[in-house]
Amino acid sequence: SSGINAEWPLRPGADFTSSSTKLNNDDVESVGSRLSRISETFDPFRSSLSLHRYLKTSQITDLECFVHFLKGNIGPGLLSIPYAISITGILLGPPLLLIVALLCLYCMLLLLRTSSHLCFKYDLPSLGYGDVLELAFQDYLGNENKIGRRLADAFLILTQLGFCSIYFIMISENVQRVIENNISWFHLPLKVYITVLLVFIMLLSFVWNIKTLAVFSMAGNVFIFTGLIAIAVYMFQNPNYHNIQDTFIGDVAKLPIFFAMAVYAFEGIGLILPLENQMKYPSHFPFILTLSILCVLAIQLFFSVLGFICFRDEIQGSISFNLPEGVISAVAQLAIAFTVYLTYPLMFFVPMEIIVPWAKEKFNRFTPYTVEFWLRTFFVILTFLFSVLIPHIELFIALIGALASSSLALIFPPVAYLMVFRDSISRGKKVTCWIIAIFGIIMCIVGTVYSVMDIVKALI
């Protein structure tokens, strides 16, 4: 299994009296009480709960899960949504954002449903994204079914490392604005700030345990809400209603860019299965997931509409960049910079969970610690280099959203669901899944082309 730290001490035939099992009377009573509670209602085909995952010992609470997922979806994507709304206009943008949110949520639930079914079918404690695609395509691709895993893993790695590169830009530009707005004679290129930041990111990237990351998530949530409140205070104090009717409808030709940025804003697709695999009560996860997405959507709608009214066509790639000099602006920008800094290891965790096990097996002549150390160092430097190469946050977000996020969020989940449940779902649901997948493919191709063209124009 590729689940994060997934443990299965209750193996069939295990010797519970041996010292290696370490199962005391309290554990037995705990397991027994859990089994008695679900014995009559347990249905692995109707719930995200499987017996194996229900009995695992490495667990996070509902609150910790909510904090992780909320933190994973509140960051640069949220702060870039006002820019996306400025592309489409105030009348068209919010309804389209709602549609994207519901599509992403629906596909996330499809992924959970598929994973749960496959866990029960193959008697597995947990599955990662790549595992789900590999098993889903098994009947169709036979010995070549690992193509599904490789596709999922490749796009997960690309998406999460793309997030990490964007975080370099986000942190550095916010810090740059605070320093240079308050010290008039001090001016350095953005790339210098990004280079200095590399040292601090490198230190944080060596946090390897997801329970430890919960502390960072909690602290990050405090800082991000401090920053968001400061931004909201400024926007409430400086509305601009002059000729607002002229900006009701934006540039419809740039809808692919809008969709790419909107899908990116719901950036937690890579966290879904790892988090569910670690939950104390996996059956609670669909509710936690839905609540998280709705909270993120509400915050996005609030800031996108308010930001649009305040800044209009002058909105930048992150709305925090629009704030002028002042105490409120400095508080907001520093809080956001620190939040994104604390989020980096959480986003970095996902690709490392995919790459590190493979690398340890491939380079087994070295100690596991040595392999992981140098891998983490290499990929941190790689995300740094990409941020230096494309230091335009809105262009980078659009590219990652179109190329990778749309594939993971809108294409793979419905296709995997169709492969697994092809004989048991209604025709209407099949049509719905195919429509979503085809829409995702179109957005992936068109959005990527538009994004690359914009990046080339910016760099020339």
Explain this structure:
This protein is an all-alpha fold and 460 residues long. Helices cover 71% and strands 0% of the residues. Helix 5 runs antiparallel to helix 13, helix 11 (255-265) packs across helix 16 (393-420) and helix 11 (255-265) packs across helix 17. It is globular, with a radius of gyration of 23 Å. The protein starts with 24 loop residues before the first helix and ends with a helix.
Helix content: over 70%
Strand content: under 5%
Low-confidence stretches: 1-57
Give average pLDDT, whole number.
79
Order of helices and strands: HHHHHHHHHHHHHHHHH
Give Rg in angstroms.
23 Å
Shape: globular
Q: Total strand count, please?
A: 0
Q: Number of helical runs? A: 17
Attribute tags:
mainly alpha; 460 residues; 17 helices
Summarize the structure.
With 460 residues, this protein is mainly alpha-helical. It has helices at 25-38, 51-54, 62-73, 76-88, 93-121, 129-136, 138-141, 146-182, 190-204, 210-237, 255-265, 272-278, 285-311, 327-362, 368-389, 393-420, 427-459.
